[in-house]
Specification:
By secondary structure, this protein is of the alpha/beta class. Helices cover about 60% and strands about 5% of the residues. The protein has 17 helices and six strands. The protein is elongated.
């Protein structure tokens, strides 16, 4: 029986790896997700059948309730709210790992049996990492859902307090490893870990949420792997290690996409200060006027262009304009216009946010180009349509050493012949700084809700001769 369950875990691990491999491309991501899900189902079923964990009525009740909640979320959560959903699921994963490890600790205390050193260490680490992930993910969810300010919230001695908390928790872990018969101190460790999770994410601004989400995802995987060692479950160890490793790799990719270190993301309070820029549509900042354009004129520019690039951002997600954007590009393609989509690695609020939204609108995968692929194309582009993107198209990142985004790789949309920016107002993005692109002589501002604006562009393109 032991050999049989290990065989099922091995099969699940192979499916996990194949699933992750296929997730690396938008064209195969859906099948990759399905393959990985089948692997997880095999691991769960094998665990429940071959190991005496719970009674069958409890197992069936859990499957029904969990499946019902998952189905409701899958059907009701909009694509624009997917980052919040991912943050919440990360928190649930970390919290579940902490609860399982904590239950094992309590079981050892209640039975009075000796707690092996290796098991005790992994219990404490699983609880620590899992609790930090749980509370930190809830704060990330609150920021994304705008229940908590999306700006970086700083306070006096912030780094000092977090350092003291971390040192204190490490000391508690050591103490509980030496003297495990201390349920009170174990509770203190849980409380401090929950507090550290909150204090660690609160000072991080909305612009860095893609990095935070991928990092918390990694934390949840590490906590799961630790719990796998606690309960001697190879399937949990393998799946947790894969999630932890892939999350760290993705975090590194996100940091490179912003040309910032992970330490700067976690402790830099990026986006805590907002520049005093005009909020009203078309209102100039100081003596810097902007050029506005009508829907008809913008449609004419698009209809008679040869090469058009669409640069989407979080504004498109908020307006849920992806379907209208797809309709517009289809019209342009019928007129012989070459249309491409420029995808910045940190556009939106989670890794791959724009890819997910555009895939929902059935945008062909071969029209999606990442930043390195599309940047050489901009000099030969007639019109770039920027929809809700802000910091990822700000030329200040290339030359303004005083700018907080200095050095961040951006989409070089300002090198195109013409730029049309769809935006509600002149408010800054998550970085809290003014965008030089808006004042460029080749930039035309089209103010209003992105979805409504694109609908009007579609109508005007249809009327173009």
């Amino acid at each position: 029986m032991a050999a049989l369950i290990k065989l099922f875990y091995l099969l699940a691990a192979v499916l996990f790896i194949l699933g992750l491999k296929r997730l690396s491309s938008p064209a195969t991501a859906r099948s990759g997700n399905a393959i990985a899900s089948i692997g997880m189902l095999i691991a769960i079923v094998a665990t429940l059948i071959f190991q005496d964990i719970l009674s069958w009525p409890m197992i069936i009740a859990g499957v029904i309730v969990g499946s019902l909640i998952g189905a409701i979320f899958a059907r009701t959560v909009t694509m624009t709210a997917m980052p919040q959903m991912v943050a919440l699921l990360n928190g649930f994963g970390g919290g579940a790992s902490a609860v399982v490890a904590g239950a094992e600790f309590v079981r050892f205390l209640n039975t009075g049996s000796d707690l092996p050193l290796s098991v005790n260490i992994t219990i404490q680490l699983s609880v620590l990492i899992g609790a930090v992930t749980f509370s930190g993910s809830l704060i990330a969810f609150g920021k994304l859902q705008e229940l908590v300010s999306g700006r970086a919230i700083t306070y006096p001695l912030q780094k000092t307090l977090n350092t003291i908390l971390l040192i204190g928790m490490i000391a508690l872990v050591v103490w509980l490893v030496i003297q495990p018969e201390n349920p009170t101190w174990f509770g203190v460790l849980v409380g401090l870990a929950l507090l550290l999770g909150v204090l660690s994410v609160v000072p991080i601004g909305g612009a860095d949420m893609p990095v935070v989400i991928s990092l918390l995802n990694s934390y949840s995987g590490i906590a799961a792997a630790m719990t796998g060692f606690v309960i001697n479950n190879e399937g949990l160890i393998i799946s947790g290690a894969l999630v932890g490793a892939s999350g760290l790799i993705l975090t590194n990719i996100m940091c490179k996409g912003m040309n910032r270190s992970l330490a700067n993301v976690l402790f830099g309070a990026f986006g805590s200060v907002v520049q005093d820029t005009a909020a009203l549509p078309g209102a100039p900042v100081g003596d810097r006027p902007v050029r506005q354009v009508t829907h008809e004129d913008a449609a004419t520019m698009l209809a008679y262009a040869r090469h058009v690039v669409v640069a989407p951002g979080y504004g498109m997600a908020v307006a849920q304009a992806q379907h209208e954007v797809r309709t517009l590009t289809e019209l342009l393609e019928k007129r012989g216009v070459d249309v491409k989509y420029a995808i910045h690695p940190v556009a939106g609020r989670m890794p791959g946010h724009m890819n997910v939204l555009l895939a929902e609108a059935n945008v062909p995968y071969d029209e999606l180009y990442d930043m390195d692929q599309i940047n050489p194309e901009f000099e030969r582009t007639d019109v770039v349509l920027v929809i809700g993107a802000n910091d990822v198209v700000n030329p200040a990142a290339r030359h303004d050493t005083a700018s907080p985004i200095y050095g961040m790789p951006i989409l070089d949309v300002d090198k195109a012949q013409n730029v049309i920016v769809l935006k509600r107002s002149m408010r800054p993005g998550f970085a809290g700084i003014s965008n030089e692109l808006f004042y460029d002589e080749r930039t035309h501002m089209l103010f209003g809700d992105a979805k409504d604006s694109v609908k009007k562009l579609v109508a005007a393109v249809k009327e173009a001769a």
